Amino acid sequence: MIGPQGLPHGFGSLGDTGLLRLHLVSESLIALACFPISIALLRIVRSRRGFRYNVALFCLAASILACGLTYGLEVLTQWRPLFWVSVAIEAAAAIALIAVLVVLLRITPNILAVPHKLADSRFRELIEDAPDAILQVDERGTIVIANRTAERIFGYSRVELLGSNVDHLVPQPSRAAHAQQRAGFLRSGVPMSMEKRVGDLYARRKDGTEFPAEIGLSPVKTEAGFFVTAVVRDVTDRKRLERELQQERDLRAQRVEVLARLAADLAHEIKNPLAIIHARASDLAELADQGPPLPALVVDQTCDSILKTTERAIRVIRGVQALAHEGSNDPMQPADVHGLIDQAVEILQTRFATHGISLETVVPTGLPMVPCREVQIEQVLVNLLNNAFDAIDGYPLSRPWVQVRVSMQPASDAVGGAAAVHIDVLDGGPGVSPQDRARLMQTFFTTKPKGAGMGIALSVSRSIAKDHGGSLELLDSDGPTCFRLTLPVLARQVEGDSA
Amino acid sequence: MRPNQASILVVDDELELLEIFSAWLGRNGYSVFTAPNGAEALKVLRTQKVDVLLSDIRMPVMDGVTLVRTLNQMETPPPKIIFVTGYGNFSCREIFAMGVEALLDKPLSRPALIEALDRCLMDSADKWRTPSPQPIAQRIQLELEGLKEAVAARAFALGRGGCCVACDLPLKEGLPVELSVRFVREALTLDAQGTVVWVDAEQGNAGVAFDFLQSVCRSWVMARINSENPRSFVPQC
Questions:
Q1: Which residue of B has its CA nearest to A305?
Q2: 3-state helix, strand, coil in chain A (%, to 5)
Q3: B36: closest CA of chain A, how far (Å)
């Protein structure tokens, strides 16, 4: 039994089989326990990349593995004298243990510096329930920390988040760019606050939906390498509020624009009659200064002119007063289409006449009543007529005519099934170019020369038409430009008519 | 030219005003032509010698601004131009830069119209000979390196009837001002009295129409105008 390598280990306990059995069983159990322990430790190291004590854990796993092997060989050497192998593994285990010792000595101050367990848990809770998602990623972009808010905002569980790449939280089109930006950020190492970012950023939830986000980044340097803490705020609600506020502002700007245009038009429409009245009166005063007798005919003609011109100015002001009444809070009341059109035409008749533009209305009799806010519809009609005027005035090639043509749309043809009235405003202007057609109803789009209009009135008119359950559109035809205002008629009345 | 020998073309779409203005001018001895819009005015200008064009801005077929732009593109030098308008939606700056010499607001009196016409018909040198009786409201003092550099730096520009100056003072349209612009290179100071015709607070400059020039700089300004022949009355910097 005695070989050149010496006696097998088992000889020491020869004769006492009970002792030998206990020895073998316990050494085997130690060896068997050591392997899974070291494997578990290595798995932790692998899945928690960036954990600050990974080096210690790795050394510990290696030393436990080595110890397990030495115990395994203890069992083997009971029968076979593999002492060199056994001693070599023992030496490896010793080295690994010394490494653990060294690492432990080095990190002990750090471990002691980690806050007391109670404070630590309070600190963690603080982060967990922060109003923003907080993520920490390593140099490769792997998420190593994620708080509860991050789970809620992104819809991933923590298990899914940890260990995955942060680029998955970025919408697909900008993912490649994001990876590059991440690398650039790591190189620069300058913190980036939420406010400093320009442009809109979006993040992606687990279900693939995206949300507007504000992201603040700060680099963290540790013994285990560079990390980046990202604070992500879901700003969906704020963006919605901003949008609503903007719409409100646009609406106000629209009102101001309508008012400004009205003021410029009013100045022109009033100053011309005033100039005539002023001139006539001053001429008469000059004549009176020359002494009597005053020629009766001249006095008569002058006064006649002054009176007529004054009436003209008053008509203009009355029209404006009707317009200034905004009417958006008025109740919907049945109105006669004929009356609506006559009022609008009345306001603008003089302007058209003095500029040599004919204004004709074609309204069939027996039209049903239209439920509407009269002042608002008046505003739309005046605006359409003004646009028609501007399309002709100043364009030498246009033909100087505008027509308002009303027709009935029977119930069956209508989109909603209800009957409606079409009020078409046609003009002899040069027409609307195809590229302008598409943008015509947009706010701030205008084809008029700079200063003549800011392009709001048409979009206001369209929203008024929509409020009335109707529409305002530019008809697609080769003929003259035709804007069609469609207003639904009183349903009951139509039924009554057909019965 | 004696004012009452001049011919005036009145353009307005308000026919009654056209009639009133014609009567006023006729009474003062001017020969008067009329047109109801810019296009008709062009026809008159093609056949008649007109010294002053008295035009409304907002008119059908062709407005006053388009009329002046069309005239500026023609080879023959345009008549002197005065705008009379009640419309408020235009830029004074562009109107004076186009060469318009005066902007009168409706309603306006006969003496005001005649005075503007007479002044318009005066020779520039004569016009600038007598100091303005109006008290000066603001003094604008500027020292510039040289005319060329100042023009390049948009600090100064000279037109037929005034200039544009870089100025941070709180000015208002219609304000009578005293101007003292020293050009170091030319060793010359432009000493003038004038009226602010437009202010651009954003750009920090203003347009000033000359009312009076000191005799030394008057001849210098006249020489510059005659050699450069600018189209604008009060230019933009």
A1: B16
A2: 55, 15, 25
A3: 9
